[in-house]
Amino acid sequence: MRSILACLTAIPATAALAQDSSQAGGGAPQSASACLGGGGYMQIIPILAMIAIFYFLIIRPQQKQQKDLRSMRDSLKKDDKIVTTGGIHGSVVAVKGDIVSLRIADGVKIDLDRSAIAGIERRQDGESS
After folding, report:
1. Which band of pLDDT confidence, cut at 50, 70 and 90, is reported for residue 88?
2. Does 111 score more than 60 pLDDT?
3. In which domain, by residue range, is 68 found?
4. For residue 37, what pLDDT is reported?
5. Going along 2-129, which residue ranges are E strands?
6. HEC states along 23-68?
7. CB atoms within 10 A of CB 84
8. For the chain, which terminal residue's Cβ has fewer other Cβ atoms within 10 angstroms, N or C?
9. pLDDT band per the 50, 70, 90 thresholds, residue 129
């Protein structure tokens, strides 16, 4: 208990004690960092733990989801039943680069960007995703 009180009283007076001891040439005063533990490594461990938690719970699953969506969009082929991000359901008529032609009704075709496709309802060969 006495050392805790000594530390608490030494913290505000550290500068004054340092001047007194340097002039008097006496013993070294008890510094504030010595009283508080000065643990530089112990302060960084919780920060590193939080970064790891954010990576494994937020960043990594999002990257996996983006990779799956990209591979699904790259594997589009004719007659796949898809849903767009706007909620339009239709069947793929043609794929030319980044443009996908979609039949949404008899005689109604629209062209949209490949990135506007949210998912595949049903594939021609019976696969589903």
Report:
1. very high
2. yes
3. 40-74
4. 57
5. 81-84, 89-96, 99-105, 108-113, 117-122
6. HHCCCCCCCHHHHHCCCHHHHHHHHHHHHHHHHHHHHHHHHHHHHH
7. 18
8. N
9. very low
Mean pLDDT of all residues in 72-97: 94
- Identify whether residues 46 and 69 lie together within a single domain: yes
Q: Which residues of 88-100 are buried (b: 16+ CB within 10 A; e: fewer)?
A: eebbbeebeeeeb
CATH code for position 95:
2.30.30
Residues 90 and 75: their CA atoms lie apart, in Å, by 16
Q: How far apart are CA 36 and CA 42, in angstroms?
A: 12
Number of domains in the chain: 3
Looking at the fold, whether 34 and 18 belong to one and the same domain comes out as yes
3-state secondary structure of 36: helix
pTM of the model: 0.57
How far apart, in Å, do the first and last CA atoms of the chain sit? Answer: 66
